[in-house]
Fold this sequence. Notes:
Layout: H1 2-37, E1 45-48, E2 54-56, E3 66-70, H2 76-87, E4 96-101, H3 105-114, E5 122-126, H4 132-136, E6 143-147, E7 153-158, H5 163-170
Parallel strand pairs: 3-4, 4-5
Antiparallel strand pairs: 1-2, 1-5, 3-6, 6-7
Amino acid sequence: MKKVIKIVLFVVLILFLGYMLNVIVKKIKHRNLITEQIQSIPQFLFINSLNQNVYTDDSIEIDKACLIIYYNSECDHCNYEAEEISKHSEQFEDYQVIMISYEPIENILAFREKYKLNHTFITFLQDSQYQFDNIFGHSPIPTSFIYNKDKKLVKQFKGEVKVEALLKYLAE
């Protein structure tokens, strides 16, 4: 009887380890796919907060470096970055800035007004379907992606970033 229990436990252990290995391999493959996918601006579809129209990766201007920031209006680090971008807004005029949040449109527009980020080169998008992590990978708030004029990834920042660093990589 003890031998049967040992065999059953061994089989269960092997099955469990096989399952865990499968899960780990899938996660690694997914992470590698996302890493490859974000090397150029990936395909996406969000809602423009101002006019409620669909905004896709094809809406991004050609031959212009682009800063994509995933943020939340209640995040202190996001508020700091927004305030700094506002203070230095004239230095961002030659670039396209896209701010993406999953919050309700009212919150997004209030954030835009609070920091006076109502410039034509800044677009606020709503991720109402919570797709950002599926498209850009797991992204803590804030996360910034800088793409050059050829839509190639130059730099990714997870967490708060100084304006000088953003501008440095946008200029590349």
